[in-house]
Alpha,alpha-trehalose-phosphate synthase (Christiangramia antarctica), 737 residues
Amino acid sequence: MSKTIIISNRLPLQIAIENNQLEVTPSVGGLATGLKSFHKDGDSVWIGWSGLTKEEIPEGLLDEVQKKAKKENCVAVNLTQQEIDGFYYGFSNRTIWPLFHYFMEYTESDSNYWESYKKVNQKYADVVLEHYKEGDVIWVHDYQLLLVPKMIREKAPEALIGFFNHIPFPSYEVFRTLPWRDEVLEGVLGADLIGFHTYDYERHFLSSVSRILRHQTDFNEITLPDRIVKVDSFPMGIDYEKFEQAALDHYESTAADQSELQKRLNHHLESTPDAKLILSIDRLDYTKGIAHRIRAFEYFLDNNPEFIEKVRLVMLAVPSRSNVPQYRRLKREIDELVGRINGKFSTVSWTPIWYFYRSMPFENLIDLYTTCGIALLTPIRDGMNLVAKEYIATRTDHTGVLILSEMAGAAHEMNEALIINPNNFDQVAQALKTAFEMPKEEQIERNKMLQKRLRRYSVEKWAQDFMKSLKAMKENRDSFKSIRVSSQISDDIITEFKKAKKRILFIDYDGTLVGFTDKPENAKPDEDLKELIRELNKSEDTDVILISGRDKNTLGTWWKDVPVELISEHGVWMRQIDGDWELAENVKSEWMEVVRPVIENFVDRTPGTFIEEKNYSLAWHYRKADPELGEMRANELSNVLKELISNRGLSVLEGNKVLEVKSSDVNKGKASTKKLMGTNYDFIFAIGDDWTDEYMFQELPDTSYTVKVGIKKTSAKYYVEGTKKVRDLLEKFRDNL
Ligand code: ADP
Ligand code: G6P
């Protein structure tokens, strides 16, 4: 039976060694806590790191670690101290983490870290491949494993792979500064489906892919030579029922069952009639805005002294990544800040901040969530922030006020919270005041709406939605209309080719025989290609026709010394072998005077674009333009042109990053079928990558072998992935002449 393979840096369980015994505790952090329930309920295996380095595990306990992991359907990846230093503390948390959270000043570019990151990603991919069976679904998680999708795809090309990024994806302007940006994007693009928490992160990713790798993106789909990759946003939810139930159990527990922490919290609340507790929970991370929060609290007390002895900030900071210098520095900063502010405001019976620097058991977390009337979460950047959602889920009487930073992904779905800019102390202080004074009815109204949404879009629903979309990618792949030219199919085509008495091959040029270049004039045929076409044409029984949208001068010059028939400008001109160019269609060109200034206006307004003038057509190229601006202007220009040319017998062709205006009477379909008139070809073959080649695919006889280059919607019967595959196929023709 097929299964789901989950891969993340950390397993949901942390293994530690106490007195030569293995101790298992749950991992913290949004990814592990969120996905745990999906894993628990389904048929899945989870691959990740146990939290112990190879050096830390005594020889005799190595098997034990795997056994403990296996009990939870997990597989532990063994990492050495050196690997953890380079991959985890290095590239993951000194390069990607700060960069993706817009802390450019903390971002290090160390090639040793990068090398280690690649090596460890390969290690994860290898473990996945050991467990992978055909039909399994693979789901890779987070920024530590950005290269894994591609590494799996290289060995298992047909695998169905999803990738989810749990942290923000930065804007192109920030991402582009990464020295290894191409490799990172290519790594992620090994997946079929790429998920983000918010539409903004999705947009940023798509923009980086189209600007850096220059892949074609249509809405949320990226067209690669051999596959389509979908990008979408899926805001991660929580295990709502678990938190709700824990809160209900908490309320039902008797005084005797209460934890020490709960007793202390109660003590504060009972100390004065309108005492309040403000809660803050995070890993101790500079992205969480903990120092900002404390300063804003100080500002609040300075400006609202009436709250002294009434409010207390209960701050839980969970130790995290303490080998990274910024985290150590942050720890010192927070210690000092808490000390200073407690020193400044404390009275005999009251300290304003209770600060815990440790992990806490789940029950204590619930104590905090249920007892604190206000939650103050002020990250400077946060992919999602599950704590915000957990707080709301535990408020079973619907009271409580959540103050949440607009920089957290969760803010997009939690509009009913008090949304603040964490850098604006005045606003944070004002929100605290509003929270204190908010009538119960309003709290209930806001929280009911929040709870309804959180209950519906739980972590289970989130995972189901992602999986559903991922499986749809597979169906999409399977239902792809044209058939990939596999080695079996190419053998079949060759058999027919050999049998035939008279053959004709229509071959498009750009995007088919040669790849695209920034400037059209740089796409000259190489000597091998010329030789191949020459050899194909040697046989009396085989006619080769290069059929292109190019102008006749360029095509004629490039193929001057090769005896091959040429059709240029989509069929306007024709050159027989060794002959001169002849006008094949009687077309007009007066219209150009009207159309040219319109296109020129678009060239002026769209940097990187230019006009190509052919004898009977005008083409506007936008391959070098900013991809988003280019697409937008292409749409605009296409509409303007269509209006301008209506009733003039002209049409606008939308090619690959080019718009072309030409006579409606001319197209490759008409030109190629004209070549067949009065002939007796028993093998007709046409290959091309572009929209303009579709005319050939549609108009040639049904018995023809029509082949599209690249995976796009097409009327062709077959497809090949790219120009390299085109040459392979043509070489096979040559070898079987
Ligand atoms: P991040 O993923 O950046 O750490 P999130 O707020 O998304 O931030 O996720 C934090 C997760 O860790 C939450 O699910 C929360 O319940 C859990 N957590 C936070 N503090 C503790 C703690 N002291 N003990 C156990 N789990 C904790
Ligand atoms: C965030 C990341 C997770 C990570 C977690 C805890 O939630 O998105 O991938 O596991 O923080 O960080 P740590 O470095 O301790 O695994």
User: Anything to note?
Assistant: Residues 655 and 691 are 6 Å apart (CA to CA). The chain has a mean pLDDT of 93.
